[in-house]
Design brief:
The protein is α/β, with parallel strands linked by helices and 338 residues long. The protein is 24% helix and 17% strand. It is built from seven helices and 14 strands.
Length: 338
């Protein structure tokens, strides 16, 4: 079925400032004959005002949920999904994370596509904001470390969501570090690269822990000031850092879990939010914010939109995606992650 009407609703998750599709990518849909209904002020917080959408032919509406095809960033169980709707968003149901959302998708017989499960033929994810998550997570990790320590340069860093990525890098480059800060990053993918980009502005050279290091991870923990988790983890896999291991870490150490799998690679991980970003377990400070890229909404929205727009167009033109389909006709269409 060809979907001539596409809705882009405003995000409803607290402190979520991104928009799924930016004007230049909405324009491509309009040019191909699709009507795009954009909810009032959908992109304002990301730097894309209503008039930018109107200028390329989109229609501003108080309710974008009436369209047969809806595109959003973060899916929530409270979203007003319609019967037999097609819904494209970050669903996060494959590991059992969002049972209420999955139940609603099935009850409403929604055709649900998950951005995070759209892959190429080799299994690589085609929609990935890991780099942006790494940038925000590492920057905010340094800032958090600074706020909980004695006098140190990181205390002067402003929240990244109050500036932008470019200004954040300028602040970092001006820091004068008088003492060595020992940082290890678990993982070497997109998230890790984002973290390393941030640290390169400070002169800090982190220890990169890859798979061959994980059986011996305990030998690295006692010296660390900051441990960053940037690895993929699936239910059934072993914890890389157990709660017991926290006992050998410095009492003023910080764990930044960017992957943010509850009870996952970091056994003590509990997802947090921007209002309450940290907690302590066995005395160790943890930061596990589950929507980091929203802190740089313009950059991350632009990147996300560029990645998803070809898939949105494909679905709008009545073609099924080969990957990413999670629910359809009241049935689960994915295998739960091990």
């Amino acid at each position: 079925m060809i979907f001539l009407q596409i809705g882009i609703p405003k995000e409803t998750k607290e402190n979520e400032y991104r928009v799924a599709l930016v004007p230049k990518d909405v324009e491509k849909l309009v040019e191909r004959g699709h009507e795009v209904f954009v909810e009032q002020n959908v992109g304002g917080a990301a730097g894309f005002p209503n008039h930018a959408y109107e200028a390329i032919g989109a229609q501003i509406t108080p309710n974008a949920w009436q369209s047969p095809l809806v595109v959003k960033v973060k899916a929530l169980a409270s979203d007003p999904l319609q019967e037999n709707q097609v819904f494209m968003a970050y669903l996060h149901v494959e590991k059992g994370q969002s049972p209420d959302l999955l139940k609603k998708l099935l009850e409403k017989k929604v055709t649900g596509y998950a951005f995070e499960e759209i892959c190429d033929k080799t299994g690589n994810r085609m929609v990935n904001l890991g780099f942006e998550a790494g940038i925000v997570g590492m920057y905010e990790g340094l800032r958090t470390f600074g706020r909980h320590q004695q006098e140190n340069p990181f205390q002067s860093l402003p929240p990244i969501k109050e500036i932008d990525q470019a200004k954040a890098f300028k602040f970092l480059s001006k820091l004068e570090l008088k003492e060595t800060v020992y940082i290890a990053i678990m993982g070497a993918g997109n998230v890790s690269r984002g973290c390393q980009e941030v640290l390169s502005k400070t002169g800090i050279k982190p220890q990169i822990l890859i798979e061959e290091h994980t059986p011996h991870i305990e030998q690295y923990l006692p010296d660390l000031d900051i441990l960053v988790n940037a690895v993929a983890w699936f239910p059934g896999q072993s914890h890389l850092v157990t709660k017991k291991m926290l006992e050998i870490m410095k009492k003023n150490a910080l764990i930044v879990d960017i992957s943010c799998d509850q009870n996952g690679a970091i056994e003590s991980c509990i997802p947090t939010n921007w209002n309450n970003p940290t907690y302590r377990t066995k005395g160790i400070l943890h930061s596990c914010i589950d929507n980091l890229p929203t802190a740089i909404p313009k950059e991350s929205s632009t990147h996300l939109s560029a990645m998803i727009s070809p898939f949105v167009l494909q679905v709008a033109n009545g073609k099924n995606l080969e990957t990413g389909l999670m629910t359809q006709n009241g049935q689960i269409k994915f295998e739960k992650k091990r």
